[in-house]
Design brief:
binds adenosine monophosphate, alpha+beta, 30% helix, Dna Ligase, domain 1, Rossmann fold, binds glycine, D-amino Acid Aminotransferase, Chain A, domain 1, 5-stranded antiparallel beta sheet
């Protein structure tokens, strides 16, 4: 059978990890990325096409005999990239614009959760700043304020003082710092507990759950400091059995999919609810309509089944015919970030030691923000690299990943990373 060409939309380490796994498929020939990054350039061809340039993506897919396209980024999904490909009768993995609302509109997703009885923080939506402030006064602090739309992961603030609450409400609703993404806000109850990431492959009829994952979002150890795009992941997280996953599927994933179905919306792709484990049970913090990053970097290391078969089955609606297998191993991803991240940071630092880990020693390095300058790989973003390892036990996995980082392994000036990934 002729090998198939695949186009992956996105430029994060998530897309690098997806491409890395796809390359292992005997069914896959050429792999293209749009736009791609330095790491993806080592395993396929970077097209440089922006993830939001839907016209060019379609044109490229047509002229390069692309069999399957995978849509990674939330903003491309919200812009309707899947709808556009489907209109052209081209195979694509990911939800339509309507279905992606579960992530792109927090008002939509909170409403859906309310309608379907999905456990989540109590909330109210607002468009008027003074009404919002009065509500905060009545509810008390701390309280959580969220822009409804996509805000590059920056649209959520946990306000501990009235000043903080007032400022963020004004920033979003009056000063419009997130543009239209802040036309509406959600104010919700503050919840406490450990967080986990749930992922489910969906084909519109059948659901297949990933093992439970954990992303460490805060910049500093002990989950302190501002949130980032993710500083590291672990999968599977110890302590969750298949009965737990079944319960999450029954009470959260299926009700969300069925609730959308009632509105005439069929969700296909990856549904990724972020959960918080409160003393009253698991509650949904948010729904994402895509793969998590850096969750995918860990997940791809322990997925046994050919990812091409899964992506195709989700796009075709044939997931029930496929048994998805995960290796009996643990995987972790440690993110190396630039000094100053998630605030302002310097770029252009030389990255040392990469040559030692070219898939060797069970270490696989996925790229976020890097650049090639004078034939040397240098830093070019806040998050720079994701160092992944697998092992039979949690200790073995983490020890292996951390052994690849530092003066004798991968390092750059100003490098910061959390030393407690997988431990807290
Ligand atoms: P979200 O994008 O809605 O998942 O929010 C980003 C992060 O903010 C979450 O991963 C949590 O760490 C935190 N967060 C969001 N909502 C709440 C809440 N209701 N209570 C406590 N923390 C929250
Ligand atoms: N792991 C965080 C995210 O993908 O949104």
């Amino acid at each position: 059978m002729a090998k198939k060409s695949v186009l992956i939309i996105g430029n994060l380490a998530r897309e690098h990890a997806l491409g890395w796994k796809l390359k292992q498929s005997s069914k896959v020939g050429k792999i293209y990325f749009a736009p791609g990054n330095v790491g993806t350039g080592f395993i396929g061809k970077n097209t440089g096409i922006d993830a939001l340039d839907i016209k060019s993506l379609i044109q490229f897919a047509k002229t390069h005999d692309i069999y399957l396209t995978v849509a990674g980024p939330d903003n491309a999904l919200a812009a309707g990239v899947v709808d556009a490909f489907k209109k052209e009768k081209m195979k694509i993995f990911g939800p339509t614009k309507d279905a992606a609302q579960i992530e792109s509109s927090k008002v939509f997703s909170k409403q859906l959760m309310k309608e379907e009885g999905i456990p989540t923080a109590t909330f109210k939506k607002f468009t008027d700043a003074s009404k919002a402030k009065k509500y905060v006064l009545k509810q008390g602090l701390p309280i959580v304020i969220k822009a409804s739309g996509l805000a590059l992961g920056k649209g959520v603030v946990i306000a501990k003082t009235m000043d903080e609450a007032t400022n963020i409400i004004d920033d979003i609703l009056v000063k419009k710092v997130f543009g239209n993404a802040g036309d509406e806000i959600i104010i919700e109850e503050f919840l406490e507990g450990k967080e986990i990431s749930i992922h489910a492959f969906c084909d519109g009829k059948t659901v297949s759950m990933f093992p439970v994952g954990r992303d460490h979002k805060a910049i500093f150890e002990g989950n302190r400091g501002p949130n980032t795009g993710g500083m590291g992941t672990l999968a599977p997280v110890p302590g969750f059995d298949t009965a737990f996953l079944e319960e999450i599927k029954r009470t959260i994933v299926l009700p969300a999919l069925n609730g959308m179905k009632k509105k005439g919306i069929i969700f296909t792709g990856c549904l990724y609810p972020g959960l918080i484990l409160t003393k009253h049970g698991p509650k949904v913090l948010e729904f994402n309509s895509r793969f998590g990053d850096p969750e995918m970097e860990s997940y791809m290391r322990i997925l046994e089944t050919d990812i091409f078969d899964i992506l195709e089955a989700c796009a075709d609606g044939t997931l029930s015919q496929l048994e998805i297998k995960w290796k009996k191993q643990t995987a972790c991803c440690i993110v190396l970030a630039s000094d100053g991240y998630p605030g302002a940071y310097k770029k252009g630092e030389i990255i040392n030691g990469l040559e030692k880990y070219d898939g060797k020693n069970n270490i696989v390095v996925f790229h976020f923000g890097t650049k090639i300058e004078n034939e040397t790989i240098v830093t070019n973003g806040g998050r720079v690299l994701g160092i992944t390892a697998t092992g039979k036990t949690l200790d073995e996995t983490l020890d292996k990943a951390y052994s690849a980082i530092g003066p004798h392994g991968i390092h750059f000036t100003g490098m910061q990373y959390r030393k407690d990934i997988g431990r807290v």
